[in-house]
Amino acid sequence: MSTAMRTDTQSSALHVADSHDLIRVHGARVNNLKDVSVELPKRRLTVFTGVSGSGKSSLVFATIAAESQRMINETYSAFVQGFMPTLARPDVDVLDGLTTAIIVDQERMGANVRSTVGTVTDANAMLRILFSRLGRPHIGSQQAFSFNVASISGAGAVTLDRGGQKVKERREFSITGGMCPRCEGLGSVSDFDLTALYDDTKSLNEGAITVPGYSTDGWYGRIYRGCGFFDPDKPIRKFTKRELHDLLHKEPTKIKVEGINLTYAGLIPQIQKSFLSKDREAMQPHIRAFVDRAVVFATCPECDGTRLSEAARSSKIAGISIADACAMQISDLAGWVRGLDEPLVAPLLTTLGRTLDSFVEIGLGYLSLDRPSGTLSGGEAQRTKMIRHLGSSLTDVTYVFDEPTIGLHPHDIQRMNNLLLQLRDKGNTVLVVEHKPEAIAIADHVVDLGPHAGTAGGEVVFEGTVDGLRASGTLTGRHFDDRAALKPSVRTASGALEVRGADTHNLQGVDVDIPLGVLVVVTGVAGSGKSSLIHGSVAGRDGVVAIDQGAIRGSRRSNPATYTGLLDPIRKAFAKANGVKPALFSANSEGACPTCNGAGVIYTDLAMMAGIATTCEECEGKRFEASVLNYHLGGRDISEVLAMSVTDAEEFFGAGEARTPAAHAILDRLAAVGLGYLTIGQPLTTLSGGERQRLKLATHMGEKGGVYVLDEPTTGLHLADVEHLLGLLDRLVDSGKSVIVIEHHQAVMAHADWIIDLGPGAGHDGGRIVFEGTPADLVAARATLTGEHLAAYVGS
């Protein structure tokens, strides 16, 4: 037997496998990137900085992460790829050294009304198994504890092949689900205000139905007029009981209208199916206004809002039902799970306990598992997605974060920094797009993009250490140590908005007078009740314009001109100048190029491979029919106008032959929020998160209202842009508006006339007013967490 000799000749030399320690990007040209080349160290924390729209997301998400995901998808068979989203290769010359990318972005959670914090993190699934094993009385499998599974039973004959003979047998089956039969697992029941559905003095032919999308000429109007269940010429108030029941409540029934076979359903089942199946936050504004007007939601009296059947609520472990467990604050639930000593389900308790502890560790211990996922803010949604990665054993993975400090109080940012460093220290590459100096400070490597936004950006202006960034002359470097000072004097309130007994979510009967005519900042740690107070008790009032963090939804056919309503006055101006109809000047209507249908590009679908988009040869990407481009306004055709920047268009429509006051007013607002560089015809899909937020703000600034509510307007804003935002807020207040801002950014707090601080903690440890007064008083008192951090920020 021979002994294998081990040589250490290579121990001093670097193994060739260890030489791939860089992610190399050369010649990236996605969106506004101008042949960008960078080399990023692996197993380090790299932060990407730069003004909003400078190209950070284009480099990190649309180039590095997108190519990593595309290459992973290509490892699957063609059959499997057919079921996956097809991704095109980013426009880049070289991408080397990529590892598997896990993206943790700011996208809000799905707006399905059945989705809760527990269902999106799998905590509910583990709880259901736990109760099906340990719950007493035992009521069935884990399905018996799911509010998305209905209890059904049935019986009938089945035909079986047995010994070459067909045999009929009677079979019975039953499924025990946990869904409350009254509210069907939604937790609330809806009651309709019939006066908002129809005008009973009119007949259907006279347009009695007032539901959006149910006009007399529309498809629904034709169905209701031609169904034959009632006379369309008879006023609704003269309907018999039977006719009114058929109009409002009739179950889906097969009918024939105008020679077409279709299904008729009463107005209320139809509205429940088309409108109420969506979360309120995901509805279009006019649909949301109709639902708020027509539908009254009340807690289900049978399940008391728990969504669960009586049987599911009756089964308990140590006196706690699954409904009680889901309603607990997660930090309390984690303690309850740790207290269960059951060897039979020990692995399950360990995994569930670890998941719940991750919530607490990440600063979300104040949530409950029954909280609808659509109500989470962007920052909360992002941290909820992080939970599944915290306990992961994977290493050498690239984690990509999009502003992970969004929605975090300065007190919580240190905790987030520690989590990012933990992921790095496990041997992972961490890429972070970030604006907050406290988060940039922990970077091993910084890539600063700029020098400005849009076409004036897309270049790497600095690459190196944080100290190097400070010393560099870039916009980020110059503003890195900026600190806003407290205002020497504050404005005097002109009145007050009274809130009494506010108890939404965790608020504990809050009474507060919010000053009017000044800049009010509402602050407090994440989960202290800021949004609950303002959106629950202020936003719905008359004259209040609320601008939330909800994402702008838009296809590649949508652009700033269509989103803000700017295109309407432009089309009318072109039509008037040329004596033709306005529809010709829309690429989504009559003026569209017939070859590409107004898209400007031809899409070729290649099944499981990425589709190819080629510029339309007919219109050369201009999107309009050739004849439309012969019509001019101020010497420009419609495609040239849509290619203008906001600043150029503002000048164009401000004076001379093309003077259009309605268009100029909208462009003024876009320039006021710092979007002067945007092209008005640029697809919304190419805009960054910060640009979309400001586009939304500019749109709402045109609404009639005396009070503006802004929810974290600094989201996605560079340090330099925060100064512009403060100037905009001042202009709003000076013009006679009242501005209420929910914010964590210390520069905005320092600039406020009045601060309302909630806390002292999160969840049931918060929900109280801990300070009201001027920023100077808050700094002097230092009695709250916010006061301490603001004092440190202003250096007092």
Automatic annotation (TrEMBL):
It is found in: Cytoplasm. It comes from the Bacteria. The keyword Transcription regulation does not apply. Keywords: ATP-binding, Cytoplasm, DNA damage, DNA excision, DNA repair, DNA-binding, Excision nuclease, Nucleotide-binding, Repeat. PROSITE patterns: ABC_TRANSPORTER_2. The keyword Cytoplasm applies. Its main location: cytoplasm. Pfam families: ABC_tran (PF00005). Residues 490-785 form the ABC transporter domain. Belongs to the ABC transporter superfamily. UvrA family. It comes from Pseudonocardia yunnanensis. This is UvrABC system protein A.
